[in-house]
Here is the input.
Amino acid sequence: MLRGRFAEGISPLLLEFSGTVQGDLEFFYEDVWGSQAHVLMLAKQVIISKHDAGKIIECLEDISEEFGAGQFKPDSSLEDIHINIENRVIDECGMDFGGKMHTARSRNDQVLTDTRLHLRQEILGVEEAVLELQNTLLALANKHSADVMPGYTHMQHAQPITFGFWAAAYASMLSRDLERLSNAYKHVNVCPLGACALAGTSFPTDRKYTAKLLGFDDVIPSALDAVSSRDFVAETAAALAILMSNLSKLSEDLVLWSSFEFKFIEFADDFATGSSIMPQKKNPDMAELVRGKTGRVYGALMQILTVMKGLPSGYNRDLQEDREPLWKALGVVKLSVAVMDAGLKGAKINKENMKESLDTDFSTATELANHLVREKKLAFREAYTITGSLVKELVSHKKTFRDVVDVKKILSKSGVEIADWEISDILDPVKSVHRYKSLGSASPKEVKRIAADLLADNKARAGELKKRQSKIEAAKELTMKEIKLLRT
Amino acid sequence: MLRGRFAEGISPLLLEFSGTVQGDLEFFYEDVWGSQAHVLMLAKQVIISKHDAGKIIECLEDISEEFGAGQFKPDSSLEDIHINIENRVIDECGMDFGGKMHTARSRNDQVLTDTRLHLRQEILGVEEAVLELQNTLLALANKHSADVMPGYTHMQHAQPITFGFWAAAYASMLSRDLERLSNAYKHVNVCPLGACALAGTSFPTDRKYTAKLLGFDDVIPSALDAVSSRDFVAETAAALAILMSNLSKLSEDLVLWSSFEFKFIEFADDFATGSSIMPQKKNPDMAELVRGKTGRVYGALMQILTVMKGLPSGYNRDLQEDREPLWKALGVVKLSVAVMDAGLKGAKINKENMKESLDTDFSTATELANHLVREKKLAFREAYTITGSLVKELVSHKKTFRDVVDVKKILSKSGVEIADWEISDILDPVKSVHRYKSLGSASPKEVKRIAADLLADNKARAGELKKRQSKIEAAKELTMKEIKLLRT
Amino acid sequence: MLRGRFAEGISPLLLEFSGTVQGDLEFFYEDVWGSQAHVLMLAKQVIISKHDAGKIIECLEDISEEFGAGQFKPDSSLEDIHINIENRVIDECGMDFGGKMHTARSRNDQVLTDTRLHLRQEILGVEEAVLELQNTLLALANKHSADVMPGYTHMQHAQPITFGFWAAAYASMLSRDLERLSNAYKHVNVCPLGACALAGTSFPTDRKYTAKLLGFDDVIPSALDAVSSRDFVAETAAALAILMSNLSKLSEDLVLWSSFEFKFIEFADDFATGSSIMPQKKNPDMAELVRGKTGRVYGALMQILTVMKGLPSGYNRDLQEDREPLWKALGVVKLSVAVMDAGLKGAKINKENMKESLDTDFSTATELANHLVREKKLAFREAYTITGSLVKELVSHKKTFRDVVDVKKILSKSGVEIADWEISDILDPVKSVHRYKSLGSASPKEVKRIAADLLADNKARAGELKKRQSKIEAAKELTMKEIKLLRT
Amino acid sequence: MLRGRFAEGISPLLLEFSGTVQGDLEFFYEDVWGSQAHVLMLAKQVIISKHDAGKIIECLEDISEEFGAGQFKPDSSLEDIHINIENRVIDECGMDFGGKMHTARSRNDQVLTDTRLHLRQEILGVEEAVLELQNTLLALANKHSADVMPGYTHMQHAQPITFGFWAAAYASMLSRDLERLSNAYKHVNVCPLGACALAGTSFPTDRKYTAKLLGFDDVIPSALDAVSSRDFVAETAAALAILMSNLSKLSEDLVLWSSFEFKFIEFADDFATGSSIMPQKKNPDMAELVRGKTGRVYGALMQILTVMKGLPSGYNRDLQEDREPLWKALGVVKLSVAVMDAGLKGAKINKENMKESLDTDFSTATELANHLVREKKLAFREAYTITGSLVKELVSHKKTFRDVVDVKKILSKSGVEIADWEISDILDPVKSVHRYKSLGSASPKEVKRIAADLLADNKARAGELKKRQSKIEAAKELTMKEIKLLRT
Here is the structure.
């Protein structure tokens, strides 16, 4: 159809290499919607007649129905879904009508319109999943606000925290992921339609009208920018990659905590898998897979950035490579978030093991040093040094903070006199977490406060999400209404 | 100093591998400011006495002066700049005073505070440079709004555009880069100080006060999130990487246009370089280098994402690797933008060559098809096919659109009758761009309109930038004021 | 089947996330072959009886036939293809026979065996395609060894070269790509089977025998290394990524040369595409797409490296993510090479345009300087400076090297006297390339010599390739023979 | 010096952006050597006189001495080190002599020569470090060949292995890393000198002679390939990135094993660091940093690949960006390997804890199933199912394999009768590892055998390395000898 200028058809090898018909099915409905809006605009601007427009739209509806019924068989030799649909429209209602559909439009702006329509929906889907995971984490934060566990730095017991504190930290990270996705959405939901090939057109189109019919927030001002740029793709991929880096962190924690050595957590049986050879195995596959699938999303980001590097302005065919990594990344991320959410919901939290793990460690050493600062008026660095020596000596005698007599004796050598009961009191992990006073600390009170703030944030974001979804629905309805009006 | 718990000093090999003293000099002043704010807070909260605080701050000022005079010689064996400074403070005013500086603080939150203080300044610097480049592009857009040139898709002449239209498209892209940088800034300019190691502290600190003294917009709610997360680093790097992808596009255009074959643009002699062997060469090195340095920034992003992948929560030493790629990327980007700006300012735009390049091409073919739609009432696809055949036949006879008689004859064979003068008129590239009507098209009028809108946007952003800068200045002054008050 | 230890079946969500049944179909036949070899070994070592082995192998053959006939319907709920096949074998010949197939084996070593069997075949396929492309380039090198064109540095005309010289350079690059692929093959074609889960087994297996049956070059010595390592995947991906970087360079040249400004090359009509809006367009899509698909392969490499980063030893489920990027990258590369080959074969080389392009440039300046060194006994740097000034003055008067009188006059001012005929002679591009003397230079003689060497290299590699292919075929036959023997 | 063709000097901003003087110091000596070889060749081929050559070489020696004494102050305004040196030579011995040094050479081939000379030395350095680390691992393998520990899959106890088996697996991985480095070396150690700008030269140079003087294995056949290609850089970076992925795995193991929960290993005090706030901390920083620095090397690879993507053939200034990531990656890798080696050498292996960790797990379940296959003639899948149920029931009653009475009773319910002593025997982890029979298994005997093979391999590679080093030394001596001959 587009080969009037050529002496030959396209080589089958090149067609196999360059064709996108299968991948394009992903945004079939978006393509139909985009064409409906375009045709409505052409009629409104009297570029084609209302009658012509009505005919074309009827055809599009037929094709759409066929597609829904699984009866639309695209022809791979027609390069992509757009030419397939135009071809069908021409076939069905004749060149005199169908031949007018592509007036004042290029595939360049058409494909980008479809991509953006589909992408915005996918972003909303990921956001929804993340909000749910955040909710789950906040429920854990509230429920376990006072259940102590070791806090780690360098994978070493550092200071006592609570499991709720841990959960709230992840909920807090996800807030920023949601913001990044929401920011990306703003750069996605703007309309390229009408930019045509790269220069706009001499037809008196109304780009604002099509943008409105399609629920876009605005029109992209420059036609050349509209067809050349894929930064919205890279921005989305970057937001997803960063989100996955957070999920990979969460996964790492969960994999470690499922181990024999930690036993802090146990996934439900339906969220674990076995081995083909080792009968005893219960594996936290789901967390491993989320961690592993981080690679897909990093790879997708790198793919997109590579495609964009060093391309001249204007449309280049390389840009066709924007969608494969995008849909892949979105699919993987959405599923990863959902799996993580379901896994956490069903997991058993072994509070006792977490608590026990603090019994023989030295994680309250900082609190002892702080106590010496407060009560013995030592400079912190002095108190730190005394406590460090205490630990060194205890370790060399295989003693712990539970050996109060030894602690007392060793401290005494440093000139620090302190009662037995006070030692026990200071070094108690549970009391320690209750003693934290600073904003955002691991004290149960602060955990609840943080969780409450984040929950409010979560609700606000859910509201925003709903608003965006509603705007899309309203635009769909407006398009339907305008189609009806056209026919009257 | 931190090795009270160890029997031995640190191995020189490990010190070489892990020490950061040299790199830390980058944020020396930020570290001092952070310590001042922290000590002021400790005094305000009566965790240490005003007198102690005064002594420490005096010491810090001395060290800062020394550093400014190039006389501060950090000791590499003390791991990093933070321990160096604390060590100096203790040396100078004794353990009784200096030993109190690190009360209720860890290096974990301290380093992150310094990083964020420095990073926000660097981001503002990049934004400033981008605003200037955008200004330059908009000046070009206005000056050349009507100077025609070929618009390219697939590196083929597609449709006539104007050089101003091209310049405005890049200005439009940069607007989104600025937004991404500004969004990243929001996630950067929040305060981790007071998170301590990961759990907060039992001292009654006032985190909001230190945040205010340091000009942060807010406190990071969760201590664990504050020390574990580097998404603000990755987000900044991603924004920079995407910006570089846009600059690499701009570079590619400029390199091509500097070639013998295009001759659309010529860099000033002071922005070009020669060859060591070929006497005649004048190379557009600067654009090539910007394109090449895109690799540094992509690499930096991948580095950061790799570091973050699969790390458990809490601080891990791997995270130290966040700053090297960050400072590197920021430095490269700031310079790349400045070089691009200076290069464009001095470049000679060869309007004549651009225009001539349209003389023998077929880039007004779309306009001819559009004309047939409008005047001959053909369906677009029909008009498209007729025009395609016309081009095919002209090419086979080595004719162009300038051969009006041939055009007329060939069109006539397709049943399209059209006068000589009309053919000339339609196929004239200059007239073509004036005929574009759609919003955001390459018509001189639209170019001016887009440029005006973007200029208003540019001014608004410059205002925002100034506000952020002022807030930082005000915070510095507030710190100074509080120090004075402390002494009275 | 593997859930005897669990109270519940696997969650459908987790199954969707973790299952690999569809992707595994890629190496169905390899899995069957691997199982046949394994079972033959079990019988040979009297771990199971010959009778048992015979039964199992019969079943495997049935399933294989079904698969070939498109009748094998794997059950997605059985996680992967391996469990599906084992399940079918047990179903068909009963637990007493089928239950023995997985003796002394784990999925860990099984999957890796399948992956390596499939991967080696794919690598050979890519190598074959590259050899063909290299052949095509060498044919071009020979045919056009004396057809002059501008050689570029910094996209500026640098010195005259020949089109054959250009083609030979790419053939030379591909030789190293072939070596890298061949090196990767060596790390691929070693046998993990028998490593079991990670520790080997207490059954007296014969790993060398299975390796031989499967055509592997050797056994991987350490079982833990065998199941933990994916460096063979990363090495293959890296070889492919570097190959694509070379193809992206070739693509860039071809895209530029297809442009209106260059017109050095024109793809055949069946290897070019049109526009949906611009009737005149003939786009070099194929080269653009190869360039764009470079991103897929870079992304795949980054994905694999990300997965491997920071994983502990032993098998982790993350490693399942090795195959998706691998098959994807191999498929894209093989097709890219084939498309490039077909595109070049059909392309029209516009020798005249290439030659003309040298008429008004200064690309023989270096030869002039060299001449002054040889004939006028000037130091090269002096000759260089004189020639540089000459070009500067010619440019300022809009003259070229063709303006012999001016050249003579300007040189004379620098004290260099040189006859008209000599100037013409020295500055003639065609004569210039014939004057090159150094090994590997652009002189037609050297081009032919380089091409001949590379062709010999190409033939030797093709021989190597055939040997590897034959070894695989021989192993397949050996397996069949052993199966027959088993039955007697 | 190279600006005879320009009206103006280079802009200071561009100079800051593009200059490489500081970075070039890295290969100062290589540049001098390269120039010496080039000048010797020019004299040998009578392109310049022996007298001229002698003078130039004298100058080069002077400059080299100055540099060694720290007195050579390069001028940043002269772009790079090459122009600096040529300029000094001209200054010192006059244009009549010094002006001849750059005859038949371009910076394009000169820089690449320097890069390759330096790079090959760096690769040998990395290989040397890796060989040493491999040696250390093999010593551990031998020493601990029979010291049992849990083998992990999915971070779950899988089967008993020995610490020696673990160490040998890493030694086995490193063998392939060494091979990849050695393969990269072959593509590095070939000579581009004499390719000049891209086309070779009309001077009768002898490229084979300079290649020999510089210790290269061969000459790069095509001049255009020689100056356009950076695949040797990418290949080296890829080999380093894969090596780092292996080190990151090793690091992850060591970080986990240093934790409170594992306590399998303890770094020496001089290879651990403390906290600024928590007095008790002993952190495995060194392993964390190696893991983190993996990001630098991945980033460097991605940087290089990005630079190469889509560049046209011929030299482009982007290619200057090849060295920064290369030197960075090599430095980081060499240090990482050395640190890992030293860390392992000093670490304490807690054999008792490793063994104890097997006391209450189910890691011998596979051996029980295997036993049932062997002694009770069950099909493996049946035995697997029975053992799986056994574990399930034991877990539900909080029993372990040590509870022999329960094991016996439960097995009996499945119809399996087995004596108490036999149960104890089968389920004993120490006996289990001795029972492994397969090639490459975790049995102490196999561990020793694997280690012995790898040690032989290590020695052979060390020999190869020495040979390459000797060849370089011999070439240096030959150059000195030829210089002496020149003077006589």
Remarks:
- Residues 43 and 50 of chain C are 5 Å apart (CA to CA).
- The first strand of chain C starts at residue 148 and ends at 153.
